[in-house]
């Protein structure tokens, strides 16, 4: 538990250093602690150390954890693949969804977001390396999907999320993240989007490169919690 606190300090230092190198303010970058496959106790320890935003990929595991931790003011982000029969629970129990990649899923989240909650903040997941087996909308299909989601009143389109294929070098990591950023800039420049401000990119192995390329949210699991166990 002591080491969890230490890990949080280390990751925050890395973010700060990366931000400074890019002449950015570290306050522009939100750290999402990816707690999938880790216990509610581990989440509680990081919460007590000041961490407020947590990301989960598996719905049932996330719901169980949320119940255990209902006394904590955590902002929960859903970052995993979304099956259509899971949309109602996701729309009800999360503040953000990073992994919208199809219109039908967006439509269901829009319909099922409870009226008493604010609009659901969403990112569109982009398959930036066009890998056949990977999730995400193809870059060429992004503008059409973005336009559809922007028109959905219970969703607030905030930006893009990507998980690039691993790169050998820092320069290679930066290059692919800059392509994600370019996709966001292109959408923004159309002038038809009201809330686009988010680039959700960077994980344990490449968070420095993501920050250099303009990430506003990084999603870190392993380097905070250690190897996944459950
Ligand atoms: C698991 C996961 C992460 C965290 O990855 P680490 O390499 O453990 O930091 C980030 N984003 C998504 C979408 C994930 O599924």
Topology:
Layout: H1 2-21, E1 30-34, H2 40-48, E2 53-56, H3 59-68, E3 75-78, H4 87-93, E4 96-100, H5 103-112, E5 120-126, H6 142-150, E6 155-162, H7 170-189, E7 198-200, H8 207-212, E8 217-220, H9 222-225
Parallel strand pairs: 1-2, 1-8, 2-3, 3-4, 4-5, 5-6, 6-7
Helix pairs in contact: 4-5
The structure holds pyridoxal-5'-phosphate.
Oligomer: single chain
The largest sheet, given as strand count, sense and whether it forms a barrel, is: 8 strands, parallel
| Basic shape | globular
Could you tell me how far the N terminus lies from the C terminus, measured between alpha carbons in angstroms?
17 Å
| Helix-and-strand structural type | alpha/beta
Rg is: 17 Å
The total of helices stands at 9
Uncertain stretches of 5 or more adjacent residues: none
**Fraction of residues in β-strands:** 15-25%
Overall pLDDT level: 97
Could you state the order of secondary-structure elements as H and E?
A: HEHEHEHEHEHEHEHEH
Report on the structure:
With 230 residues, the protein is of the alpha/beta class. It contains nine helices and eight strands. It has helices at 2-21, 40-48, 59-68, 87-93, 103-112, 142-150, 170-189, 207-212, 222-225; strands at 30-34, 53-56, 75-78, 96-100, 120-126, 155-162, 198-200, 217-220. An eight-stranded parallel sheet has the order 7-6-5-4-3-2-1-8. α4 (87-93) crosses α5. The two termini are 17 Å apart. Pyridoxal-5'-phosphate is lined by residues 34, 36, 57, 79-80, 163, 203-205, 219-223. The site of pyridoxal-5'-phosphate (PLP) has 14 residues, from β8 and α9.
